[in-house]
Amino acid sequence: MAAPHAAVGVEEGSSETSLILSDSTTGEGKRPQFGTRFLTDPRQLFQHNAWDNVEWTEEQEASAKRKVSENNQPLPPEKQEEYDNQANEFWNVFYTIHENRFFKDRHWLFTEFPELAPQCNLNHESQLEVSDSDHSRLESLDHEPRKELLTLSHTDGDFPGSSATYRILEVGCGVGNTVFPILKTNNDPGLFVYCCDFSSTAVELVKTNPEYDPGRCFAFVHDSSDMEANYPVPKGTLDVIVLIFVLSAFHPNKMQETISRLAQLLKPGGVMLFRDYGRYDMAQLRFKKGRCLSENFYVRGDGTRVYFFTQDELHEMLTEAGLEKMQNLVDRRLQVNRGKQLTMYRVWIQCKYRRAVAQPL
């Protein structure tokens, strides 16, 4: 469906609600998660803020491909090297400016990825729209049990969280928009959460957050693309690894090695949870000439970088790392600004891959 106007200023942090996913690689069909709001009558376009599982026309697909092709002239190698060498500095500046105000807490994660709080019984149907009242409701869940958990500590032992029975690592934690909802919602006394970012500014913001509990969480500065940098946990000890809109910031040449190394940290049966930008997402189409670093890899005006994936790319990367597919879905959403009569076509990819139970380290 053609858009009345195309919006040009929305990024991942502005909308992560009401997800509808479909598996276009296996033919598994539509899988409703949050809602089932389908646009069947174009005249109702601006009746709601978002529409689920929007199919693109052939004309839209061709137009997106043309736009990407027109803007794919890469910057000079010396300029690309500059952005690569200063990547952490650009993210430090980003978090210095925005602190914890840019991205919203990702409470939708517990519907899409129940592995983050497997013992909790959330009323997912109440999460159709993420609002301040939703955040308050989640924060009040199991309030008394969490008070008791503050007296527990998993920090003694050979490594942080060594006595924990359920360990989660988030790579690229930013200021904690995934970590803190996990700590609030998952009331398992055996839980320990690790979170890292290569922005020291972001990690410091996590540690100084009043909700940071060193007895249940360990935040640390880490460049996951640096193969010489060690993680604070042994191989084969993590139950869950989370990568939410983070791998896209890595140089494409470093992605496979990064994922393969992370996969080794998983226990047999442990899962890697992934969500990131998909090919021809609105954010990709709005890049102008002079912003392309390599094919489908761009630099924003603030110096941070972003890659746009296909399902097949991610499947190949994750299986090469020795993981088994549980889920590989594309999320196509139509978001609208009813006041300005704007339409925004978003494309995200969500994956869940597991380490084989009998796989050796």
Describe the structure.
The protein is α/β, with parallel strands linked by helices. It has eleven helices and 13 strands. The protein has helices spanning 58-70, 77-85, 87-98, 109-112, 132-139, 143-149, 179-185, 200-207, 252-263, 282-285, 311-320; strands spanning 20-23, 29-32, 50-51, 166-171, 191-197, 217-221, 238-244, 266-277, 292-294, 297-299, 305-307, 323-337, 342-355. The protein has an eight-stranded mixed β-sheet with strand order 3-12-13-8-7-4-5-6, sandwiched between helices. The chain has a three-stranded antiparallel β-sheet with strand order 9-10-11, with no helix packed on it. A two-stranded antiparallel ribbon has the order 1-2. α9 (252-263) links the parallel β7 (238-244) and β8 (266-277). The chain is globular and about 55 Å long. It starts with 19 loop residues before the first strand and ends in a 6-residue tail after the last strand.
Give the CA-based shape: globular
Strand content: 15-25%
Number of E-type strands: 13
Low-confidence stretches: 1-35, 122-153
Give the strand order of the largest sheet, numbering strands 1, 2, ... along the chain.
3-12-13-8-7-4-5-6
Q: Helix-strand pattern, N to C?
A: EEEHHHHHHEHEHEEHEHEEEHEE
- Outline the biggest β-sheet: 8 strands, mixed
Q: If you average the pLDDT, what whole number results?
A: 76
Number of helices: 11
Report helical residue fraction. Answer: 25-40%
Measured distance between first and last alpha carbons: 49 Å
Rg is: 20 Å
Secondary structure class reads alpha/beta
